[in-house]
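USER: I would love a firmer grasp of how sequence relates to backbone shape in proteins. This is the protein in question:
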Amino acid sequence: MMKSGLSLVALLAATPALAQDDDIVVTASGIEQPRDQVGQAITVIDADTIRTRQAVEVTDLLATTPGVRFNRNGTIGTVTGVSLRGAESSQTLVLIDGVKVNDPSGDADSFNFGNLLVGNIRRIEVLRGSNSVVHGSQAIGGVVNVMTGTPAEGYAANASVDYGYSDTLNAKADVSGTSGIASGGVGVAYFRTDGISAAARSFGATEKDGYKNITANAKLKLSFSDALSLDLRGYYIHADLDYDSFFGTPADSPDITKSDQYVGYAGLNLSLLDGKLTNRAAVTWFRHDRDYYPARGADASYGYSGTNLRFEYQGVYAPVDRAKLVFGYEHERPDYDFYGFGSTASAKANIDSVYALAIVQPAEGLSVTGGLRHGDHNQFGGATTFGANANYTPNHGATNFRVSYGEGFKAPSLYQLYDRWVGNADLRPERSKSYDIGFDQSLDNGRAMLSVTAFRRDTRNQIDGFPPTYVYYNIARARAKGVEASLTLRPVEALTFTAAYSYIDARNRSEGTANEGNRLPRRAANAVSVSADYVWPFGLSTGATVTMMGDIFDDAANTRRLDGYAVVGLRASLPVTENLEIYGRIDNLSNEEYATAYGYGVYGRSAYGGVRVRF
């Protein structure tokens, strides 16, 4: 009975204890699954990798995984979008501790990764390919599932602080523990920097744009019995950013933005029929308030507020060991509010969805998953999506052959429809079909792992908005196809080598239009990442990461090309005692000048050092 209770928590907490194992994932079907039963492409960034890489921004970790592209409007904290397999950044669904955090008031309903710092995050799962059956709208490109740590058995505490270039201070701490029926943890992270000019210095911009970020997280689980538990979770981000706002020639400006994001989850978990039926009923809440100021000390000129209230029920029925049925109902109510320049605007939507997903193992080594979702949008009516995948392993997980198919449906966001400057009330919903096939091969008892995946996605009515007007419009047809590959080597215990490559051909396929055949903006065709870390006999750990990105076009007409780049980072850490460690890193070792969005700058060579303690 205890085993079924733990599985229930894994299903419903979205950050289960077992999911801290790299061989277990939760994003593919919403429940805990061994990787050799999943037919979709998933990358896991675990706690050891996060600690070793010393990354500050989540996007720096994502950039080392296959199929991921990102663009940032300048310095740390500025608007940052993440694209999976050439999809729009708004087609990337983002979860924080199981809560959907795509912003109804944000650009195209997308999540701004600029304010998501690593802080006390312990695990990230990246699922590539449409997964609308499980996760609903937004999951056309894929899912980024971000998780804070699970509470420790007994008591544990961690803290770190580092300092470096441009008066940058990065500090974080967390404590967690278990006592009786209660387990939980809290964490806080503080980051500030004088930054760099958001506008590129090649245009003469020199004014530094500073940034401050305060992030807090909390979890509490009350296990009343093996069958009944209550999960409470919260996440908060406050950000204060100087940024450069320009239309035309990039230039310095005194603009300021302040934002607050609130994430909440309350779920009741109940196991019945001797653990064969598990149930979760939950309420999740997300709110993002953004205010924009012409200068520090001035009154706000305008602002946005996006809220998403969700009610969720999910059940899992497992009548036999080789079969599970996952089913559920969701009600979602996104709200959009705007004020500024003498006017206000607001809009709401209601979305109701039901879904069912069957997971069966009809033969030894074969796992097949298939399901349907029907969603009803109060403005765009009903839509049904289908998804299926299979995984076959002839040798208990050493070799896996994967195949998947997924459909996506995404209604235009409230921002896309009603924003006073770029909104378009005539937009049509996006629809997609995606296919992929691949394999994973483990050699020498896991010392080597090779994964290769080929994919294709066809999208109808894809929504885009780029210069010169930025007004949203539908692209009749778009297609993305390509291949992803990753390699992990551990020839000796002390050495870890990883490499990732992806080729993405993402193009406008709208016949008879001026942009037919053009590459979609800000999607590099080729990307390579290589990392190596070595632990010396006396405890010193040294490592390096090289990230290479190909050329991109910054506009839909493909008239503005941005050159590709290669960035090198070095890192080292040394344990002083069992509980104390010193560490440091150098970013952009070669002082490479490049851009991921036209007119915006990037950090040059910069160095940081700090200390960690844990108990």
User: Anything to note?
Assistant: Confidence is low (pLDDT under 50) at residues 1-19. The chain has five helices and 34 strands. Residues 2-13 form the longest helix (12 residues).
